[in-house]
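Could someone model LGQLAAA5 with this protein?
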Amino acid sequence: MSTIVKICGLTTADTLEAAVEAGADMVGFVFFPASPRHLDIDFADALGRQVRSRAAKVALAVDADDDLLDAIVEQLRPNWLQFHGSESPERVRSIKRIYGLPVMKAIAVASPEDLSVLPDYAGVADRILFDARPPKDATRPGGLGTAFDWKLLDGVDLKLPFLVSGGINADNVAEALRVTRAQGVDVSSGVETSPGEKDPDLIRDFIRAARAA
Ligand SMILES: O=C(O)c1ccccc1N[C@@H]1O[C@H](COP(=O)(O)O)[C@@H](O)[C@H]1O
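Reply:
Sure, complex below.
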């Protein structure tokens, strides 16, 4: 199976086109006001139409309430929901039932104890995303450009595909995949020139490096 490549936090038509044309499997749109990649729902609608089934559209939310999820699903019509907050397994199960969409649940990793929740989520999520645990004073729970110790995933035995993220870029993506044996990678900061400013060349370089890994 080829590596699943997700480019997250797309905010412009140009960078979205670069990601899709370069062969991204998943393109992510962030709905979290504290993020420099936060998207207004109406603009997300336009970007979503631009994708035209060439990649899977992923809506990233952080402890979103039902009204926000309703609006996202209605306007963006995502193929996936990604939850990056403290959504419980019960909440994930209930949202899956309501919208009939697959869910990728992010697990924040900084120590072996962080993996103790895995059995609870593995039973309800369709994919797991291992991301670096943010510092306590962070203004957002992801998209910070910092990596975790990938060796912490040694011995993880999941029956569902998992992706890895956090501080990954074209230079270290091969190593991230080798060490974690993840089925896919997710990147945001690593294809940016500054927070929220994606660069088409960096996107293309990243996808090429991930494919070559
Ligand atoms: O990208 C954001 O701003 C963001 C905000 C809130 C939660 C998650 C967010 N991004 C996710 O973080 C990782 C990528 O991090 P990095 O910037 O490449 O280090 C990825 O899973 C994004 O989907």
